[in-house]
Amino acid sequence: MTSSIINPVERPEITQQLSENVILTTVDDIYNWVKMSSLYPLMFGTACCFMEFMAAYASRFDLERYGMIPRATPRQADLLITAGTITMKYAPNLVRLYEQMPEPKYVIAMGACTITGGMFSVDSPSAVRGVDKLIPVDIYIPGCPPRPEAVIDAIIKLRKKIGNESIQEREQNQQTHRYYSITHQMKPVAPVNDGQYLRSATREVPPSELAIAPGLELPLALQETQNSELPPD
Description:
mainly alpha
């Protein structure tokens, strides 16, 4: 048994041993430790996977014990969990949210619909077949929908990935999406529908064939209008 008091009442004195007063580490380790211990995911969801993402924050799983506090704005978040189906109509909004997040930022693709289109990949013409076509993805969570345990497992894997990063090598290992965006070559043209098509003479006046069919005769003013619209011989 040791003779020293574990919790002395007196103020502890600084020991003379250098090993107990100096901690040697690297900037990468401190920087990565801070990042992995305070991931702020964006409060984002588009379909049923978001229900499981919410369940991970409930009292049974308590995802906040990892220091993860969901944020309601992308400018304060560094983790985007795409929980749910992404349609082609919503794809520009997803890319906009990702671009508004500050660096360094990470993406977790949650669910089969986000990874490959899921059950919509065959029949739906509007579902995006993989969110990694739009934004770079770091971790994939398979399932339909994944359980909260799978979300926690993905967070642990992402923390390990962040712990092995280096500030100097981050620009070299920067991920990109699988498809390059190409500027369109379309030319602007005048609109076809100007909002006045209901006021055209052909819509206000019925065709002569339609009026003659039931045995009705067109008024003289309508006959002149019809004749004026006929092309010359």
